[in-house]
């Protein structure tokens, strides 16, 4: 069973009071996320990532289309019992401490007393706030509030967790911690759906990603698949060879010396690397490494969102 | 219902830690003490003045609490986006509205109870301080149990006003909600005049409009028995029961309307 299934999900708003104009925040998004996946929803600001998450949590109503979560209609109470959600830039009741807040939220899942306190303590320890759990939230830094947000999203041990920009406001250590937490969730079998514009996080964490731009899906698939056909050459590193030999064999390639007798050679795609490698070995050189030069996810992202498919008139 | 109760306790805790509410409670205590001093200035009328001022204080301060906490109940959750966390839990929007309402009712109940206790303390002191001749001159005993009827009906009126404030809070800003709620409160106290508009106006359409407004707007004069109680006049049980029933129906109407509006609201 798919954890998430979106079918032609569309959200249109109306802008302006006197002269209302339709604005399409999300345009016919169809997606499937399998159980146990870490799925990244990528896109620049205004791409429709947060709208997608709000539609999934039934915080806004779709104009058309359907969304199913864990085989049930999105927004049903049963779904909300089984999922967790971290909103973008979360905000909480200032007068409560993180511990009180989590106990309160645990109560909404029917968990009270010692069990609620145990869960709250465990979640706060998990996000690194165990020591500050009794401090009022109004005294927390932005990064600490973000950690509380992640903790509350996990208070019910969800099967599926939605994280909207989970790295927002975190310092490098915080980001590393959250990455590790997402990996732990994945290892536990929890499906993770997160939105981000930090591509390094998506590249490191996701099984699959979807790239949105101006409310439309512009690419979807495994990160490796999206980048597989985007090899634009090879990086060959050889040693125990002289500059003259390298110049002679790698004609037209970019050559970068990286040691007294060691060179990195950017071989164009038109040149077969096997043949070049044989020639170097015949000259007594040693192979250090041979790697394809791929676009990064960032290159792919920039290219994808720069020219999204034309949107039909609303 | 258990979820509604938990949400209500959350609202109550938030209110208890709200400094504005503390200010109102301190003001209420000062006002109660002031009624005693004012009573001293009016020879022979002291107990009546104290009762008048005491009941008016409970009513007015309760109104401020109901309006100024009620108008922000939903709006503030939406504005600071804390509602996203709440509605992503297994809480329906109907439960959210009911929980918010119940929480404010709990807060009001505690505050009205505290003001009532302070009021009775002042009256008890007056009673203890007065001689028999003075007591016999009072239109009703100092610690008249009928005062509780007046306070009870003030409570029902506050429940209606809270529901009005909550209703406006589901779709308008706190400022507009406050203006509309206070306007309805004023109109509500003169609503009975709309019922008998035909006695002063000949135009049939104007009478129909006035009659329609009478049924649509809350009739808060039904909850005002302060004058009868202070003067020791009887308050018929049927009138009290009718007022409570009317209040319950009006509150139910407002809460259902608030739920329907909030159910369709996009939380952008």
Word description of this protein:
- The complex is a heterodimer of chains A (314) and B (268).
- Chain A is α/β, with parallel strands linked by helices.
- Chain A folds into two domains: 2-227, 3-Layer(aba) Sandwich (Rossmann fold); 233-294, 2-Layer Sandwich (Alpha-Beta Plaits).
- Helix content of chain A is 34%, strand content 32%.
- Chain A contains eleven helices and 14 strands.
- Chain A has helices at residues 49-56, 77-82, 98-108, 113-126, 142-153, 172-187, 199-205, 223-228, 243-249, 273-282, 297-306, and strands at 2-15, 21-34, 38-42, 64-69, 72-73, 83-86, 160-164, 191-196, 208-213, 216-222, 231-239, 254-259, 262-268, 286-294.
- Chain A has a six-stranded mixed β-sheet, sandwiched between helices. A four-stranded antiparallel β-sheet of chain A has the order 2-1-4-5, with helices on one face. A four-stranded antiparallel β-sheet of chain A has the order 12-13-11-14, with helices on one face.
- In chain A, a hairpin with a 5-residue loop joins strand 1 (2-15) and strand 2 (21-34).
- In chain A, helix 3 (98-108) crosses helix 4.
- The two termini of chain A are 33 Å apart.
- Chain B is mainly α and 268 residues long.
- Chain B has one domain.
- Chain B contains 13 helices and no strands.
- In chain B, helix 2 (19-40) runs antiparallel to helix 3, helix 3 runs parallel beside helix 8 and helix 8 (146-169) runs parallel beside helix 13 (237-263).
- The mean pLDDT of chain B is 86.
- Classes of the chains: A alpha/beta (314), B mainly alpha (268).
- The A-B interface holds A 13, 54, 57-61, 77-78, 80-81, 83-85, 87, 89-93, 95-96, 104-105, 107-110, 149, 152-153, 156 and B 2-3, 6-7, 10, 13-14, 17-18, 80-82, 84-92, 264, 266-268.
